[in-house]
Amino acid sequence: MSGTEFEWSRGERAKAAAKLMVGWVALLWLLEVVDVVSGHALDGLGIMPRRASELVDIVPAAFIHFGFAHVAANTVPLLVMGFLAALGGLRRFAALCLVIIVADGLGVWLIAPDHTNTAGASGLIFGLFGFLLVSGFVERRPLGVLVGLLIGAVWGTSILLGLSPLQTGVSWQAHLIGLATGVGTAFWFRRRPATPRALTQ
Question: Cα(136)–Cα(157) distance, rounded to whole angstroms?
Fold first, then answer.
């Protein structure tokens, strides 16, 4: 691949990642508008723990929020971290997000306190944070390491606060499970170097 083709490919990948994340966030806002107009009918798609009927809500819960302030709080980190993670390829990103959402939802279903309803994109955000934080080190990519360090510097404090059990009205369980899953996916989805071809002489 020539330098020009590489730049074109990288530029197209960035455009695709940007379009995906803008569309994703727009969907979250649209769903919240529908929720408000419908008298919060979508809030029932959150996860209520240890009820068999709630297992079908594990994926939808990641797209539902409890008010516009909730969506707004998740918008910028999801846009930025999602865009950076999607630069590695949309198929890989889709698989990464699916694993985080499902693992996080199952974890919440198992360990969240009784009589709670958990929803929102923050579990995914914590997962993307964990993935970006360590994937550069796992793959030994200097640029990835730099991205991880920058993400840690910008959002590290808020991530740590989000893990505190002392916060009321916040699912620290979802945050913790999302973060742990994200770190795990950095190993699961790591890019392996190509095997050198054997040449005779």
Answer: 20
pLDDT in tens, 58-100: 999 999 999 999 999 999 999 999 999 999 999 999 999 999 9
Token look-up 């059990």 returns 165
pLDDT band of residue 200 (cuts 50, 70, 90) is low
pTM of the model: 0.91
In this structure, what token pair is assigned to residue 12? 């197209």
**Lookup result for tokens 């979802």:** 174
Choose among 187, 174, 184: nearest CA to 104.
Answer: 174
Q: At 133, phi and psi to the nearest 5?
A: -65, -40
Domains and CATH numbers, the chain: 3-188 (1.20.1540.10)
* Secondary structure string (H, E, C) spanning 119-152: CCCHHHHHHHHHHHHHHHHHHCCHHHHHHHHHHH
Which amino acid is located at 137 in the chain?
A: F
CA-nearest of 135, 17, 26 to 82 is: 17
Rounded Cα distance between 25 and 72, Å, is 10
| Three-state secondary-structure class, residue 22 | helix
Q: Tell me, what DSSP letter sits at residue 48? A: P
